Amino acid sequence: MEARDRRLAGGRWNAAMKLAMVGTGYVGLVAGTCFAETGNDVVCVDVDAERVARLQEGKVPIYEPGLEEMLTRNSREGRLSFTTDLAEAVRRSLIVFIAVGTPSDEDGSSDLRYVLEAAKGVAEAMDGYRIIVNKSTVPVGTADKVRDVVLRHTRHEFNVVSNPEFLKEGAAIEDFMKPDRVIIGHDDVRVAEIMKELYAPFTRTGAPILVMDNRSAEMTKYAANCMLATRISFMNEIANLCERVGADVHWVRQGIGLDRRIGPTFLFPGVGYGGSCFPKDVRALLQMARESGCELEVVAAVHRVNEKQKTRLIEKIVDHFAPNMEPSPGLLKGKVFAVWGLSFKPRTDDMREAPSVPVIERLLELGGEVQAYDPAAMEQARRIFGERIRYSPNNYAALEGADALVLLTEWNMFRNPDFPRMAKLMRQPVIFDGRNQYNPRELKDLGFTYYCIGRPTI
Length: 458
Ligand code: NAD
Description:
By secondary structure, the chain is α/β, with parallel strands linked by helices. It has helices at about 5-10, 25-35, 50-55, 65-75, 85-90, 115-125, 140-155, 170-175, 190-200, 215-245, 250-255, 280-290, 295-310, 310-320, 355-365, 380-385, 420-425, 440-445; strands at about 20, 40-45, 80-85, 95-100, 130-135, 160, 180-185, 210-215, 335-340, 370-375, 390, 405, 430-435, 450. It folds into 3 domains: about 1-210, Rossmann fold, CATH 3.40.50.720; about 225-310, N-(1-d-carboxylethyl)-l-norvaline Dehydrogenase, domain 2 (Orthogonal Bundle), CATH 1.10.1040.10; about 310-450, Rossmann fold, CATH 3.40.50. The strands form 3 sheets. It has a 6-stranded parallel beta sheet, with helices on both faces.
């Protein structure tokens, strides 16, 4: 009997499995910790030795609600450990997940360097049959590329599974523990059965595990993210039109969201989507389509609309402070802008492709001064802006002497602030709200000039 057949014989495992998670970023750490939480024996591997050393001390290098407590508990109870030693991790595990980054390459395609390097490392360390699982978001055909790389570097048997991840930063634990669905792409039905066993504790409330071929699994992840990005760009266009024709997107959004065929989520207009996934996945799908000689016109428009939307708030700021003037360096000289929110969305410290970055860069180019506050992303912001902006210890301190507040991330703490206190701290009571957090009528009554997205200025 082949080694693979011996390992897979019987089908049901029903016991804690030994897993390795390669990559301890947002996805690897959350997935590794949640698998440990359900009783598996998990070792997480990273090439970043400093990151691993911090994790070994129980310090979580990212901000993700609930993660530190769960990670520390599972480490203490011996189900979760961290190492830089890939070979050792592979030798002690049956299933090896690859959860490394897949950033955009220069042409927009997904850079598979880290995935393929990890696959090579896994292959070289294998001392017997392994299941290699792609958890990173990867273009269609990557399972085959991983298979080729592994084949070249080992004589042992293996299977490649595509298991894309759908968690959201800020609610990652909740999403992983209670997924809407789990997608398993596979090349051997027995391996799919093992993956179903592994995920069974997360799908007890009825979430389906969809088993399909590798290519469809890879495509599902891109199609999901591009669909969500499409909803956002669509609503941003509708919001911009609302402004022109005197409609209020606040009502329009609710009016369409109550249609069960549409549903209420991902319909909020704003300053454009950002983050580590939507922008790069939209670009990667477009590039994948180009390479296949196929044009994705809707997705191309989604990307263009999003790029434009990032400048909407700046246009409003220039119109307010320098009406009828062409934007030029120094136009906003002497103006101080308080910025609330830097991360690409609330409950994360992630600033990858955050709309705050182009907005702040443009304010600085136009000669404005920026004093910013974010509950979690101040350290990330320092890496991006250095000494070019001021960092405030809290949201009210950011308002001192400001000519305007620019709200860019809808953290809960910004939802219901003390407006009279704000007006006293600011040089001028002006708010540019990129996330439609406040009631225009109330703000007018409180003496604010209030601009938002897709709603009439009262
Ligand atoms: P990340 O950048 O936060 O983490 C990647 C980690 O992998 C880093 O710590 C890096 O040091 C490590 N790494 C790189 N090469 C390695 C190697 N050869 N061996 C070991 N470690 C290595 O990335 P992320 O945000 O966790 O995303 C990982 C993948 O998951 C991406 O493909 C992403 O598109 C996808 N994804 C991300 C999210 C999200 O919300 N962040 C959600 C779903 C899917």
